[in-house]
Amino acid sequence: MEALLGQHSAATGQLFELEAVATVWGQTREQPWLVNALAQEVCFLARAVRERGTAISKRNVFEAREALIVRRETHLDQLADKLCEPQVRRVVEPLLSGGEGMHSTFDVEYVRDLGLVAPKPPLQIANPIYGEVLPHVPTSVHVDEMPEQRMVWYVEADGSLELDKLLTAFQDFFRQNSEHWIERAQYTEAGPQLVLQAFLH
What we know:
Distance between the termini: 31 Å
Oligomer: single chain
Shape: flat
Strand content: under 5%
Number of strands: 0
Number of helices: 11
Order of helices and strands: HHHHHHHHHHH
Largest sheet: none
């Protein structure tokens, strides 16, 4: 990771602040695809830092991270089918729902080999970016199928949320979709959390 960032600095003269380097490591845990995607975003695509005389800051890294998440530009779309495999589901679903899992050492090693969980104990999602994206993967197809009116945010004139309307809309959404989506996503334990995240997404 440091070699990649150093190569950019050597080639362009643009420096990374120490906090920015630490943030890249902290958000990716050196997962190669994520490091490359984050570096590409922050070094070449983010408008705020195209000026090479401007050092790349921690804030710039977080803005690049958000851009990747919003555009779903992680290779997790290639792993979506893996999330449906029983051995993956036995490990990942409890991590998403905060419960205890019924999985074997083989299950854990398999999911570690996929890079979805941290390489060493304790058992946890591999990095914060995956932690943000993984809950959306089982429901992402279903989110795309949502009618457009479901995507409305409930906002007062002053910009604050109309909480009563938002909660009512979520209750309606949950009643209409939860059973079907949880069954299709195959993550029944984490299902309520996934449906909530789909609604918010």
